[in-house]
Amino acid sequence: MLNQNNIVQLAKNFDTKDFNIGASFLKQTLWYFTSCLFFRSGIMPFSSVLVAILKCFGAKIGNEVRIKPFIYIKYPWKLTIGDYSWLAECFIENLDYVSIGTNCCISQNAVLMTGNHNYKKTTFDLFTQPIILEDGVWIGASALVSPGVTCKSHSVLTMGSVATKNLDAYSIYQGVPAIKVKNRELS
Length: 187
Hints:
Blueprint: H1 4-13, H2 25-40, H3 47-56, E1 60-61, E2 66-67, E3 72-73, E4 79-81, E5 86-87, E6 91-93, E7 98-100, E8 105-106, E9 111-113, E10 115-117, E11 126-128, E12 131-133, E13 138-139, E14 144-145, E15 150-151, E16 156-157, E17 162-163, E18 171-174, E19 179-183
Parallel strand pairs: 1-4, 2-5, 3-6, 4-7, 5-8, 6-9, 7-12, 8-13, 9-14, 12-15, 13-16, 14-17, 16-18
Antiparallel strand pairs: 10-11, 18-19
């Protein structure tokens, strides 16, 4: 049973395993306030302005990308987005790199989570792994992609599903954890 002393001891032993944010303290601070003002508040409805701001902070973004207001992006300098992709009011917790291909759709309230903690250790060690969404991937509303997952070309993760393993190309996945339910046919 955990008590106050055990919790304090666990916090002292917490290990981030040489985690590197990848930016100076000044850049992190500027991004925090910029994100709060222009992205999370919804005050800036123009996708082109949001894309330009992300590029200023180091994101690599292709042509005709649409970024919707109320999006959360942890570290833009660890984000790559290909041409013609569309990101709704989603949550990108990119402690590690996130690569989004061309013609991808990340729907409302979807979560791309690149970090977690090892619950099997008393030190609750942090671990991070990149997420790769290949071309044509669709992440449904309120779906979650776990650290280290690659969603292969034109795969679909349906609404509310959780991808804990790689998704095969041209396949549709559903459930918690997500399993393949059928092939995706493109016309």
